[in-house]
Amino acid sequence: MREAAMTHHPHHPPHPHQPHPQLTPLLRALRWCAALLLLSPLAGWAQQCNSSGFGISFGTVYINASATTTGALPYNCQSNASDTYYKLCLYIPEGNIPATSGINPRRMTDYNGHEIAYNLYSDASYTNIIGPPPSGAGYPDYTWSFMVPGGWSSPAGSVPIYARIPALPASSTAGSYQAQFSNVTLKYAWSNKGTPSNCNSSNGANSGTGSIIVGYNGTTATVSGSCKISLGSVSDLDFGSVSSLGSVQNATTTISLACPGSTTWRMGLNNGINAVGTQRRMKHGSSAAYIPYELYRNSARTLRWGNDTTGGSDTVNGSGATQTNPTVITVYGQVPVQAQPTAGSYSDTVTVTLEY
């Protein structure tokens, strides 16, 4: 059997009554702080909310049509060691330049003297306008509630902002529009006892209120310069039933056109599918019988309506700013006196060309 030898050093005698070395004052302080952290992990935290801001973009919008879009307001709120109940309220002011002032409606501007109306809502049915700070100016509060569990919790969430442009007047000018706000305000109230009744007052002990200014990237929209002709707005030019072409036969129809106020346009009519040269003709079914006719730009039927949409010499010309919009344009048709054709139905197909 081997014996293990123990060596003692005379100048370092053992101390049975002190089995562990003493801590220096610094080490004692570090251990004390660590104990405090373990006992109270949230001692330096308080109930509060934050938001990174939001913006609203409608993209491209069109005259005589409404437009909707949805933005989102991000937020996060934190608790301390106890469950914390929050109620939040959002208030959005009117625009901060004169051209975008007002709440109902709010307005965007192109900074050239033109405006379009819109508004921001708390509901998807676009009925509850979000009012301005400090208290909504009589509009229903946009408010919501939730609970943050006690502990190191800071959940992120968002609420939708519903935006709508009502049907744009056809006199609207094409271009880029925007509105900027300052002082978009998010108010909140919190309590460790239960959901606060409103965003502006605390419920005694273990409760409080707060308010932050939310960053806003603006509301933007681009009004399209496009013109529109609805196929349903072009009706047949019908000369009716006649027993003889021994007298002139006249008829009219209309074409409806909508263009933005800043857009000029030219509308042309081609010669149809049965023309000989520039002479328009209606055809009798599959036979070789034709009835010559003509289309005009004026009621006296002296200005032929052609298809020179480049030069505009024989077209109907206008702009959204100088005519009613939608513009209802009359097509004046005439069948001249001619020999009696073969009895039956005659027709032609004419193409409408719009240049803008």
Reconstruct the topology from this structure.
Layout: H1 25-39, E1 48-50, E2 54-61, E3 67-78, E4 84-91, E5 106-109, E6 115-121, E7 142-148, E8 156-165, E9 175-179, E10 184-191, E11 207-214, E12 216-223, E13 249-257, E14 264-269, E15 280-284, E16 290-296, E17 316-319, E18 327-335, E19 346-347, E20 352-355
Parallel strand pairs: 2-12
Antiparallel strand pairs: 1-3, 3-8, 4-7, 4-10, 5-6, 6-8, 9-12, 10-11, 13-18, 14-17, 14-20, 15-16, 15-19, 16-18
Tell me the CATH topology of the largest domain.
Answer: Immunoglobulin-like
**Number of β-strand runs:** 20
Sheet with the most strands: spatial strand order: 1-3-8-6-5
Low-confidence stretches: 1-21, 23-44
Strand residue content: 35-45%
The chain-level structural class is mainly beta
Shape verdict? rod-shaped
- Helices and strands, in order, run as HEEEEEEEEEEEEEEEEEEEE
- CATH class of the largest domain, anyone? Mainly Beta
pLDDT average, as an integer? 85
Domain tally: 2
Distance between the termini: 112 Å
Question: Roughly how many Å is the radius of gyration?
Answer: 39 Å
- Helix count equals 1
Helix amount, in percent? under 10%
Q: How would you characterize the largest beta sheet?
A: 5 strands, antiparallel
Do you know the CATH architecture of the largest domain? Answer: Sandwich
